[in-house]
Design goal:
Strand order of the largest sheet: 1-3-4-11-6-9-12
Structural class: alpha+beta
Radius of gyration: 23 Å
CATH superfamily of the largest domain: Jelly Rolls
Distance between the termini: 38 Å
Largest sheet: 7 strands, antiparallel
Order of helices and strands: EHEEEEHEEEEEEHEHHHHHHHHHH
Number of domains: 2
Strand content: 15-25%
């Protein structure tokens, strides 16, 4: 059963805050230790456990997570990829790196490692079973502690993790397994899969991850004037035709996806008293429409009423 946990050291009593975080979360859940650095430390955690993998987000400042020789004796056969958003420092297997800005480091739970942040930073993480990663990547243990440079697969994985960790509730149990496979495939693609695994990944996780990334980009930017397929292609390092082909699989074109988002945004604003001071034309423009008459036509066709009727209905509720 998927589980989603959100936790912050600010939720704990100040006097015992770091000791409680170290014992109750770092040691019990993450199976590692935590040492605060400096006079003011804060850690915010999002932790999503799926069928095959665990994903998380750790943000804050002034602390170091350490998995030492004592922890390694638990025999936990897993790998973790840490994607940096902000300055982090890692060390494992003789490799000491400062990394940030979309770079990542692969950690082997079978060897001691540490990751720390002196100032405000965030890392998104994915933990996968060692046996499953080794089936796709040749000798991933040899890459422990090494930097994974930014690239299309890593970018897709990061976007996928961000989408999952933004959920208010965990995914449905029937989706957890396939999500885990998609994430595992993207991780393998980012590290470097075997030739045989590359064929599997191309038809499985990578393709699904790319479609999800395209849809997420539409959901994020649909209201921007002039937003088009080329914007998505450039952002995700894909060709224009690839973006169109992915969207064809959903049964809707790029224009249809964008229009649907814009109509939903406009309808929500018209129904919300907080936007009652705005004219309908202002709401149309805010949702991304550039032509008011076209907006009125599309709105009536989609919702069966005019924008002014939708606003009147919202006020009456």
């Amino acid at each position: 059963m998927p589980q989603l946990l959100r936790f912050s050291t600010e939720m704990l009593p100040e006097r015992d805050r770091m000791a409680a975080f170290r014992e109750e979360f770092a040691r019990q859940v993450l199976k590692m230790d935590f040492h605060p650095i400096g006079g003011r430390t804060r850690v915010d955690i999002a932790y999503l456990e799926l069928d095959l993998v665990v994903v998380g987000r750790c943000s804050g400042f002034g602390g170091e997570f350490i998995r030492n020789a004592h922890h390694v004796r638990d025999g936990r056969g897993e790998f973790m990829l840490g994607l940096a958003h902000g300055p982090l420092r890692s060390r494992q297997a003789g490799h000491d790196h400062a990394y940030s800005g979309g770079s990542a480091v692969l950690f082997d739970y079978g060897q001691p490692f540490a990751s720390r942040s002196m100032i405000s930073a965030e890392a998104r993480n994915i933990v996968v079973p060692a046996a499953m990663l080794k089936a796709l990547v040749p000798h991933p243990e040899d890459q422990a502690g090494h930097l994974i440079r930014p690239g299309p697969a890593l970018q897709l994985l990061d976007g996928y993790l961000a989408s999952l960790l933004a959920l208010d509730e965990p995914p449905a149990p029937e989706l957890a397994h396939s999500i885990g496979l998609h994430l595992l495939d993207l991780l393998a693609a980012a590290i470097g899969p075997t030739a045989e695994a590359a064929e599997i990944i191309a038809g499985r996780g990578l393709k699904a991850g790319q479609l999800r990334a395209v849809l997420a980009e539409i959901a994020r930017r649909f209201a921007e004037p002039g937003f088009d397929v080329d914007d998505i292609a450039g952002r995700l390092c894909l060709s224009r035709r690839s973006v169109q082909r992915f969207l064809e699989e959903t049964g809707k074109s790029f224009t249809e996806h964008v229009t649907e988002h814009r109509l939903e945004r406009a309808h929500a604003m018209l129904s919300d008293p907080r936007f009652s001071h705005l004219r309908i034309v202002d709401i149309a423009f805010a949702a991304g429409f550039g032509d008011v008459s076209n907006f009125n036509h599309l709105f009536r066709r989609r919702f069966g009423e005019t924008p002014s009727s939708a606003r009147a209905t919202g006020r009456a509720v």
